[in-house]
Amino acid sequence: MNLTSGIDEPLVLGIETSCDETGVGIVRGTTLLADAVASSVDTHARFGGVVPEIASRAHLEAMVPTIERALKEAGIAAADLDGIAVTAGPGLAGALLVGTTAAKAYAYALGKPLYGVNHLASHICVDQLEHGKLPEPTMALLVSGGHSSLLLAPDITSDVRPMGATIDDAAGEAFDKIARVLNLGFPGGPVIDRLAKEGDPRAIAFPRGLTGSRDPAYDFSFSGLKTSVARWIEARRNAGEEVPVRDVAASFQEAVVDVLTKKAVRACKDQGVDHLMIGGGVAANSRLRALAAERCERAGIRLRVPRPGLCTDNGAMVAALGAEMVARNRPASDWDLSADSSLPVTEPHVPGHGHTHSHDHVHEISKDNLYS
Ligand code: KG4
Ligand code: ZN
Q1: What is the pTM of this model?
Q2: Basic and acidic residues: which segments have biased composition (predicted)?
Q3: Which of 44, 81, 137, 215 is deepest in the core (most CB within 10 A)?
Q4: Residue 284 near ligand 1, beta carbon < 6 Å
Q5: Which residue segment(s) compose the domain that 95 sits in?
Q6: Do 158 and 113 sit in the same domain of this protein?
Q7: Would you give the DSSP letter of residue 333?
Q8: Using a 6 Å cutoff on CB, does residue 306 contact ligand 1?
């Protein structure tokens, strides 16, 4: 449902720098034109996790080349854009700052409106590039390295409601930690996913967190599982026995995806929502995708999961949400937009103070504000 004066198929460039991926995407409405990503993940691998300072520096170096690559890939001129969107949060403060500053500089120089958008809402909205407009409402299971939440989204541009979230580790974080215990490198999700295919998911009965009858229905907990897996491995090692890595990977993964899918389906049923969207890096997990498909089908719920490349962090997801903001005529952000490392999920974007940008407005702005 379009608000009256929004642009029909807005051409929007999106910049994502919340973690270790410098992503620049370009979309026209819900059509993906370019998705350029430069990752600094290899630089972090030897530390076993993302080092914020290294990520910020890598964003700075990759920013302009990645923007140019995206423009070339899309075959458009920057002057034709209807807006520039950027992740305003949540994420690493320094990394976000590189993205927001670049977005302001480009938007200011080109005379385009600027949209600071929410990383989590972007993970949901990206599915529009693959499966068309999101049904309203949509239930979203958002599972990444930093977040695990169930969100009800009556309107992805203005109304996102948290139903539940992890009370400790995020799902992706659990994958990364178990991979570290097994000496499998970083990030852990993809390698556990691969090894689990050759293991037995029923080999070891690891605990399912917060699934008791008195536990909160939509919250998650993965820290008990993580400890239990680590102890199990340690006991084997102490006894001088070989650790069956594939079985551990498969059994651990099964415990995670069993709980995620069960709670997501339950939330849809309880709330009478017949569409479930799964997004975020962990949505790339093959077992999560398969089990969700099975359980949704049984429950009569339509499942939407973007292809794995759009689940992990990228610029296209930011462009997708930015385009939706323009299409619905949401107010642009102000030039003093600041990166907010803990931007709440309930704020899909950071609107300015009641006006949309125009060229006139752009020229009134003091250059000082660009760097705030
Ligand atoms: O959304 P994302 O790219 O970045 C954040 O916003 O956190 O998610 C990264 C997380 C990492 O923890 C990574 O291990 C996990 O997603 N991940 C996976 C898979 N691919 C990436 N977890 C499980 N299975 C996968 N195939
Ligand atoms: Zn993410």
Answers
A1: 0.92
A2: 357-372
A3: 81
A4: yes
A5: 11-126+314-370
A6: no
A7: P
A8: no
